[in-house]
Amino acid sequence: MMSNFRNKLAAFMYGRYGADTLYWWSFGVIIVLCVARVIFSVFGFYRVAWILNTLSAVILVIAIFRFMSRNTDKRRAENRKFKKFIGIFKGKYVVAKAKYRDRKTHVFKKCPECKAVIRLPKRSGEHTVRCPKCNKRFEVKLK
Q1: What is the span of the domain harbouring residue 79?
Q2: pLDDT of 85-110, one tens digit each?
Q3: pLDDT digits (tens, 9 = 90+) for 18-40
Q4: What SS3 class is residue 113?
Q5: How many domains does the chain have?
Q6: Of the residues 40, 46, 66, 143, which has the maximum number of CB atoms within 10 A of its CB?
């Protein structure tokens, strides 16, 4: 009985796009909107709560549509654009976290050519540094 249901579900889902990064992020946004809706309705802001509820329902419908879609090329392109957009913030977060973690032992400098962030040991004086991304050599003065 259960394997029959699984087979039918697998046949139904065959060729459909399924869950990806954008799908899971949209569910995270829905959860945040639902929590905000509850908070606003507790304090009597019913119009704001209604707007948040409607917005979360629209996002849910879009997420389910993307999940069930058979147009996988279009969904992949959407997910790629979303990952590129998120990567901007994620990259800055990773660098900021590393700067804080290594603040006592290392210093971070940007390559003047390609703007890549380079982690250098904290040793005072002038140093010649080679960028691992573009192979350009440049001088760095550390205090």
Answers
A1: 2-101
A2: 999 899 889 889 999 999 999 999 99
A3: 999 999 999 999 999 999 999 99
A4: coil
A5: 2
A6: 66
Neighbours of 66 (CB within 10 A): 21
Write out the DSSP string of 5-49: HHHHHHHHHTT-----HHHHHHHHHHHHHHHHHHHHHHTT-HHHH
| Interatomic CA distance for residues 4 and 87, integer angstroms | 42
**In the block, residue with structure tokens 């954008």:** 22
The reply to whether 13 and 65 lie within a common domain is yes
Residues facing residue 129 across a β-bridge: 138
**Amino acid 19: pLDDT:** 93
Q: DSSP secondary structure string, 47-80? A: HHHHHHHHHHHHHHHHHHHHHH-S-HHHHHHHHH
Distances (CA, A) of 48 to 1, 28, 37, 57: 46, 19, 7, 14
